[in-house]
Amino acid sequence: MSILAWIVVGLLAGWLAGVVMGGNYGIVASIVVGIVGALLGGFLAALALGGDYVTGFNFTTLITAFIGAVILIAGVRALPGRSPV
User: Fold this and answer.
1) Quick one: residue 16, left, alpha or beta (phi over 0 = left, psi -120 to 50 = alpha)?
2) Which of 29, 56, 58, 62 has the fewest CB atoms below 10 angstroms from its CB?
């Protein structure tokens, strides 16, 4: 997947995760959360289901990145000493 596709998927997944989780992030933070979420979601999906779910700009990749971004946001919020975002 090209860097531009990673940025677009990251932006969409990060924005959707922010909407669902109730956070107001900027465009750069949404891209970072979405890209890290795609990596996390792809890793977890490969462990649980066995397969490559981050393969290009498609619906499966977007859903995998979204789920990973939601898990990432929930994990960061669960850390002790963090203010709720």
Assistant:
1) alpha
2) 56
Rounded CA gap, 66 and 83, in Å?
23
Q: Is residue 85 part of a domain?
A: no
Query: Number of folded domains in the chain?
Result: 1
Q: Which of 38, 42, 59, 41 is nearest to 51 (CA)?
A: 42
d(CA 62, CA 58): 6
Tens-of-pLDDT digits for all 85 residues of the chain? Answer: 677 777 788 888 888 888 888 877 777 877 788 888 888 887 888 888 877 666 777 788 888 888 888 888 888 888 787 655 5
In a domain, 19, yes or no: yes
The answer as to whether 57 is a domain residue is: yes
